[in-house]
Every structure is written in structure tokens, then in C-alpha cells.
Amino acid sequence: MAEDTLRTRQTLLLRIRDDGDERAWEEFLDLYAAFVFNYCRKQGLQQADVEDVVQEVFRAVAKSIRGFDYDPVQGTFRSWLFRVVRSKLANHFNKQKRLPATPGSTQLEGLANNDFEANPAEAETVEWELDYRRRVFQWATERVRAEFKASTWQAFWMSAVEEKAPAMIAEELGISTGAVYIAKSRVVARLRKEVEVATGELDALF
Amino acid sequence: MNDRNSDEPISACLGDDALLEVIVEARDCAASKQIESHLGQCERCQQRLEELSGASVVLCDVLKSTVAVRTDGFDQFMERIHVRGGLSLAGALTADGVLPTGQITQADDYSNILEPPSRSGLIGMLGDYEIEEKVAAGGMGIVFRARDPALNRTVAIKVLRLAHGGMNDARERFVREAQAIAGIDHENIIPIYQVNHDAKAPFLVMPFIRGRTLDEVVQSRGQPLSAEEIVGISRQVASGLAAAHDRGIIHRDIKPANLLLEDATDRVWIADFGLARAIWDPSLTLSGSMTGTPLFMSPEQAGDSPVDARSDLFSLGSVLYFLATAKLPFTGARSLSILRKVCEELPPEASTVNPSIPEWLAALIARLMQKDPADRPQSAEEILAMLDYPDVSGADLAADGARPQGVVKEREIKPMWIAACGALFFSVAVAIGIALDATGLLNPGQDRETVRHSNTSAGKVNPSMSVSIVKKNGSREPVESLAIAVHSVHAGDVIELSQVGEFTLVSPPLHLDRAVTLRAGKGQPPVIECEGLLFETAWPLQLEGLVLRSTGLDTPVIDSSGDVLTLTNCKIENTDQSAASLRRRRQPVNPILSTALIQCAAVPSVVIRNCQLVSETTLLRLQPSSPTESGGATIHITNSVLQASAGFTLELARDVRLEMMRCLVRTDHNLFSLHRNPRYRSNGACNLQLTFNSIIGKGPVIGFGNADIVDSTRVTCDANAWGDRTVWSAGILPARRANSGGAESSVITRNHDAFLNLLGTRESDPIVIMNSQMAKESLRSVARKFPAKRRPDVRILGPGSAYEVFRESPLYERAGR
Description:
heterodimer; A: mainly alpha; Rna Polymerase Sigma Factor, Chain: A; Arc Repressor Mutant, subunit A; 2 domains; 69% helix; B: alpha/beta; Phosphorylase Kinase, domain 1; Transferase(Phosphotransferase), domain 1; 4 domains; 16-stranded mixed sheet; 14-stranded mixed sheet; 29% helix; elongated
């Protein structure tokens, strides 16, 4: 049953290739924009610069999304996205190098990063991957939360995230210990499905 | 669970299939009690359930760390990006991130906004509104043309694209802002009929205005607008902004695409007032960060600083720059580069890019676009005043030959102008207020030119006032005094008075022996003070941007018998505080006997533009210079504020043609006193045309000094606003002729915004009233007072297409003779 739903729902990546599916694009942005934004921010860019780079990244994504065929051999979407982000960041830092440093301008902070390379070091790739996972699950939790009863969600949250003992949770919420396990498994499964539908990949994540 | 006794725990472990079923079972329906209780005890099944659901340690770690993910600044980014359409799919696919009129959806699918159409020919319904057509789409939302079936009128409906997330907050904000906007009743701000926030997407209902945005106007012309058009547009936009700022509402997104030019009337409408703020995050309302189109946004908006009304003024400056040059003041491939330029660069002067833009207008635009809000005009009212009273007097507007190209007609400017007049009174008073206080210190017997520093607290480093002669080739030559300058200036050269700080030049009478052009240079308008006469000339005299202040009422300030007298952007006032003057104020003297502020003899052309004339006496007297003089004189008075006990005394010995347009007039006596000096042979006619003025007078509009003048007088009034107690002179009526000493106030009109042609020169000539119910009625009631035989022939034309009726009638021929 779960498999059926999975197959009948196109992945988000497929849907955004359809020009008319503005909604898919919005979901896509909802999923990735904050993530890309955060990543750029971490590279030491100022708000205005981050906004610029993020816009460029998504413009590039929108343009080339049709050419992007999901092929695990060629690479995953998240690694492709990483390449795009790195190259836009590299462009940005390159341009800044060429601009005269105006005192008091927003460029000064960026200049500290003038050794930025488009090709990431391994540690950077690992960091990206981890951030990516965090983001997609964060996004998924936001989306599926409303599908569950409050007590179910709380049971999941307290056990999976807050790592409380199921018995304690059961007592606190006034449900049985078994119900806590069930709640956790159901929400986790649902989250994974949401992520899988959105990213078209899940096994590759774990 | 509440029936535990029947739920014996099952001891056997659950298979994978059973556990999977538990996982995917309808999510919140309770699992079988047995399974639940088994899971509560069996560690193996607990573990297996977690494995099957994928709740690995790694995943749980990821979930834990999501709690810590914070994205400072992202929400603001998303919201402004949404509004700009910059990250929308359509937006992302265009070359530029700035999408003023981009489509929101590629396909015309509004099913997420509209209800299905109720009949064919519609694209949908929104409440009761029948949506007929999509008119525009942009970052803010989609605009539809719709029909309101209840009132059977066409409306525009703007469906808003609300910010990402926080829908309820955004809706509330939206309604609050809409209420604020709806509170502004201004002829240049698109009103709001209705706001609906319950629909799928909140929407606003507004009048449907057929027209084009200024963006489209410039693009379709492919060239800048004329200076006059720009001034007309500036007045209207500034006036609208003034009204909104008054209520504390800042637009935040003034740009050409938000300014609509109505086709039928050429009125400018400001759209999307306050919506920028309503749509964005409330936390932004204080800092206002980047809430606007980057191309026209102010540095403080671009730089995330608090914004106030002056931010709109910067944007207005950028818009005017765009209109004046057909070029964007700041360009760049990316919004960041635009923003950086907004904050750091100055665009080339508008007059450099487009030489037909007068210097003063370019200077005004440059002032509006100052980076520091404190360096800009501080309010929209100030802009209005500056438009009529520019402090940098350079090339003159009309002298540039820039005529309206049908974009802004006089009619639309008029109401603006009246508002501007009020502001002008105020700002001029403030600007020279301190100088005025010092009037009492003046030595009345002064016959030497002196310069008095009027404002020591001006904070300028080196206060100075200088007189220089600007040669035709642009070179500049300092001159010791004004008296020397007027006697050494060559034809075509210009005398300039510049000042740092505020000064008053106290001057003896200057008897000019050549053509003189005297204008204000940099700084505040120079004040020249005199006791009575200042300029006596038989030569062309041209004054620009000066304040002339006279303390004597017995002689005119300007006494000209030259060919041309041109006053532009000047204030000329009589500030006699003597007992005689005060007496005169209480009881106005007969204008024919009083001295005039400006006296002209044999001056064929008097032009008064953007001036303020204030006096307890007659403002302007035109008299023949000799009994045998022939030819005609023309007087043009436009955009001026006239305040006097009596407006004009025209002594007629020849054809006088007077055109008064867009003036604000206040008189305690006649507006016009027509008078024929019996010594002079007369064969002339007097033709007065009053258009778009606002006139408040206590005396009759026209007084006739002697009866035979009525034979040759024609007054044409068009779209003036008259004071409540306006009284027309009886002189033109046949009864008046028969009884030249009596019957005053025979024609009374009130508030008529009409064409009033008084053609009664002979008993057979009719009085024609058109298009004015009130004028018609009052005239009829007056007519009834006359004996039946001598009752004036009042012909009423109209209603409705009165002007056309008039054009077709034989009267038109006669009126035009």
C-alpha cells in the first residue's frame, strides 16, 4: 500500500521539470532554498550577497533541471546541487576579488574567503551531505506533522528526538508503552516516505 | 486501553508483515490492543519495528540536529523574493531577477484562486465578482478585470500573493493596511472599494482604471517625457504621497510600474499603496529591509535601515529620473549590484543625459535622490512647493519650448496646483520668516545698497551673498553690488544673486537703462528689500527666483514701460506696517485710485509665472502710455498665488488680452477693475480668459470704471472654482447701462465650475450660461428682478455636452470675434 502511493506520486524532481507545475517549484524552493541559503551564509557571505548567490543558484537549477536526468551512476541530485552552489559561490568570490575594496562596504567580509575553490574538499562534501539530510528531514517533519494526532507526534518526538525512555513517555502522555513504539515507527516511516518522494532517493542517504 | 482486562498480552512475537501493517495502518487509528500491549513488553519486536520503520540511530541523530537548524535572515529573504517573483519558476527562467510584470503562472490556471465561472465568457468567479480577464500579474499578485453584478460596474480585483508562511498573520496585516489605505481619500490614490480576506486568496476591489503605467508610457514612446509632463506627474504623485504620509502611510514601492496614467483624464494614480508593507513580514516594518523594487528603492531600504516617508521621496526622485531620461538611474545585472549602486553611486545629472530637462528640475531630482534622507526635501509638500518655486533658478520651463504632448493636461494639474499654492504660502513664509522679523530694523532713509545677514544660526561655514554676471559663454564675473551690475550688464548676460546662508539685500531704487535679467543662483531665494520703488525701467526686465519686499505702499515695486516684463518663481510683496496701511487693510481703497504693486505702461507683454504677489494695493496696473497708442497688450499669469485688496486694474486704451490660469486668487475688492481713462482715445477691447483658477473675492469679479467699456469686454471662464460669495459685476447687463450709477450685484454665481460667457454688450446680446445649474438659477432669479421689458436675455445651453452645443451655436462665432 505504501509502495503503491510511492509509485503513483511522481518525485518532486520529476515534477519540477514540468514548466506548468508552479506548485512543485514552490515545494522545491521550500525544501532547498533555506538549505542553500544557510550553506552560503556559512561561507561567510553577508545577507545581501547570500541572497544574490541563492537567486543565481536557483536560476541555474530552473534552467538546467530538464537536462538533469536522475542517474545514480552520474551522481545524485544533492551532489549535483552541491556542484552548482559551489560554482556560484566561486564566481561570487572571484568577482569580489576583482572589485576594489570600498571601506565600509559589504565586501570586506567576503574577501576573507578569497581562496574559495569550486571543488570541495572531502570534509566539505561530508558536511554538505549531513546538512542536506538535516534539511530534508526538517522539511519533512514540518510537512507531515499535521497528519498525526498530537499525542502520536509527541510520542514520536519524545522518543526519537528527545530520547526519553518509552515507559516515561507513556506515563507522561497517558498511553501504553506499545503505543509509543507504534507512534514512533509510524511517524518515522511517514517521514522517510515524504523524503523519498521529495528527493527521489532515500537509501542513498542512509 | 480502557478495557484492559480483555486485552491479554499475546506472548508470540510478531512477524515482519504484521509489524509493517502496524506501521502503515491508517495512521491514528489505534492498533489492536493485543499488538500494542505486546509491543510494550517485547524488546525484540520493539527493535524489529524500529528497523522496519527505518528509525535508525543515524536518522534519529539527523532528526535531533534538525532542531538546531536555524536560518537567520532566510524568512525575510524568502518573502521579499516571493514578492519580487525572483525565485518563482517563471522568474528564475528569465535573465534578470527583477520581474516587474512577470507572470505568476505560465498556464492561465487560476483554479487555486478563483471559483469556476458562472457563465461562459468569464474566467472565473471571486465571491460575487465575475472575473473577465487577467490584466496584469506581478510579484504582488494578479490583477483581474471584473464586473460587480450588484452595482453593474467594472472593477479591478487584485488577488494578493501572500508571503511565504504565516498566512494568518499576513492576512490580518493585509486587512489592516487595506483599511489604512481606504482611509485616504485622494484623487491620485486608487481607492479601495472592498477588501476580502476570507477567500482562497485575499483580494482587494478597486476601480478599474483604463490607462497605462508610466513604465509602459516611457517604453512605448522610447524617449523621455517632456519637462512639463514630468512636472505635472510630479505634482500629482507628490500630492498623493503627501496625503498618505500625513496619515503615516509609507508606500515603500514607488516605481513607474505602480504609477498609472489614466487614458481619459491623464490623471496619475498611485497603486499598491502600503501593500508592500502589508505583504512582508511584520518584523520588517520597522527596518523595512529591502521592501521594494531594487531599481527604485532608497539607500536606507537597500541597506536595511529604518525607513520613513523620505524613502518614498527618494523613489519618486528615481522615477522622475527615469521619466526625464528614459534610463534607469541605477542599473546592474544583479540586484546586489543595483543595491550597491543605490547606496554608493550618483547617477549622471538628468540634464546631462537629456539636455532638454531644465536645470532646476534636474536639481530637484538630484535633491530627491540624495543618499542621506536629511539632504532630501523633507516632505512631499516641500516637493510641491519646490515645483512651483524652485530655489535654483535656471532655464525656465516654458522657455524650453517643452509643451505637453497630451500626457498631462492643464485640467489635471489644476487641483494639484491649488494644493501646491497652499504649500507655497507656507514654505515661503518659513523660508523667509526670520528675515521678515528683521524688517523693523531697517533704516527708512537708506539710499545705499546694504546686505543684511538674516539668519546667523544657519550653520553655514562662510555666509556670503554675491552678485555676479554670467556671460553668454558661461563665464562668471563677480560684481561689487547689484546697482553696479544692472548698469554694466550686457545684452544677453544674466545677473545672478547667490548666497550661502540667508541674506537680505536692501536696495535703493534702481533706474535701469538697459535690458536686465536678474536671477537667483545657488542657495535660498535672495531677498531684495526696498522702500517702495525698486525697478524703474523702459527696457525688458526679467526676474527669476527672487523675493522682492517693499515697505512702502505709495510707489510700485516695479514700474515698467518696457516691451517685456517677465516674472518667474518670484515673490513680490508689500509689507507696509504703517498706520495708513493698516487703515487701508480695514477698508480697501478704490483700486483705480490705489498704487499698484507692479505698474506697467505700454508693456505689450507681461508674463507672471509661478509667482506669489501679495499686496494691500492693486497687484498689477496696466495703463496706456500715451493717448494715441495703438496695438495690443498680452498678460499671461499662470501658476501663481495672488493676494491683494484688488487684483488688477486695467486701464484700457487698446486691446488687452489677459489669460489667467491655475492661479489661487484672494481679493478684498474687484478682481478686475476695467477703467478707461477719458483722456485717451479708445478703440480697444478687453478679453479676459480665466481657466482653472481658484478665486475668492469679496468685491465683484469685474468692476467697470465707466460704462462704455462694457461694449468691448468679453470674459470667458472655464473650470474655475469660485468662492461662495462671488459676485459678478452688473456692468455688463443692459440694465446697468441704463442706470450706470445703480444696481450692483446683478449677477450672482456660486461655485460654478462652468463656462460663463458674459456677452452682454448691447441689449440684444444674450448672456450665455452653460453647464452650471447653480449659475443658471441664480442668474434667472436676478433676471426676474428686472422689469419684463428690460429683462436680460439669458440663454441656457446644455446640459451635458454644453460645450458642443455652444460650439454649434451662432453665439460661438460672436464670442470668437
